[in-house]
Specification:
alpha+beta, 8-stranded antiparallel beta sheet, 3-stranded antiparallel beta sheet
């Protein structure tokens, strides 16, 4: 046996073992990284990376085809892709499933190159306060557990927003919030809201 060939074989074997060990360590590190990734991070990834619309399945049974435009602290803003020029705001807690292309799902799990610290602080309650300030007409889907609430849609204007609830003046969609147009008032826990829909023509900025 030629000794130089013998040592070449040993070097090749050692290199292969090192490569296998490195791949195993990288695979374990990736599994540990993914174990720390939450749904908000994946949604942020879809907002950044998705090439196709996604379908959000929400707590009241609504399935909406959207493009996620922005992700707040605990909610998403997503223009709907049905051509109706509507913006959907949905608490992350109301999302029951997300249909997306496989490539987009994989890309959404990539490590973020940067994070939007301001968006991370914009809560759903703060977004509702902004709608109240703007006096924007909205439609709200309710996600209560009873048959009388789940799947129900209310239209009106948000009058005021507390720490965990809001007051809604009920009136027909498209009507201004005038005393003569208001039919009744409703106090709603924010946790009972599956989604909020506004007309894109309202000019509400997205975080």
């Amino acid at each position: 046996m030629r000794w130089d060939r013998f040592f070449d074989d040993l070097e090749d074997q050692l290199a292969a073992e090192w490569e296998a060990e490195r791949a195993a360590l990288e695979s374990e590190a990736e599994r540990l990284r993914l174990a720390r990734v939450d749904l908000r991070a994946r949604l942020t990834g879809l907002a950044r990376e998705a090439e196709a619309p996604v379908t959000l399945e929400l707590a009241d049974g609504l399935s909406a085809v959207v493009r996620i435009a922005a992700v707040g602290a605990d909610w998403v803003a997503a223009p709907e892709s049905d051509g109706a020029r509507r913006l959907l705001l949905a608490p992350i807690a109301s999302i029951r499933g997300i249909h997306a292309a496989h490539g987009d799902l994989l890309r959404s799990a990539r490590p973020a190159t940067h994070t939007d610290r301001l968006a991370e602080r914009v809560t759903f309650a703060l977004a509702m306060r902004d709608l109240a300030r703007r006096r924007v007409g909205v439609a709200l889907g309710l996600s209560g557990t009873g048959p009388e609430s789940s799947g129900r849609v209310l239209t009106g204007t948000v009058d005021r927003v507390g720490a965990d609830h809001l007051d809604l003046a009920l009136h027909d969609a498209g009507s201004p919030r005038r005393a003569g147009e208001v039919q009744s008032y409703r106090m709603l826990p924010l946790a009972a809201i599956a989604w909020v829909r506004i007309d894109a023509a309202a000019g509400v900025p997205v975080v």
